[in-house]
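Researcher: Here's a chain I'd like modeled. Treat it as a single chain, no partners, no ligands.
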Amino acid sequence: MWIILLDHSGSMGDPFEATDFKFEGRVRKVAADIKLDAAKKPVLLQLRRLGESTHVVLFGFTSTVRQIHAGQAGEHAAFEQALSG
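Model: Modeled as a single isolated chain. Structure tokens:
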């Protein structure tokens, strides 16, 4: 089972500001101007790398946590739909 936490607080709707920031650790570069859009893309990419029958629960959080979607990693369209909201 995979549990994914996605920050969707107000600041995630803002564009990126830092231009000279150097990331360390695990970094996935995606084409996105808004932080939340940039965070959603690696989630969908990771789902495609998991075994299709792997159970995944996706939670969104601000000051509280709520479940966005639960299903099998192979249910790409369902996760994409859940993330579009």
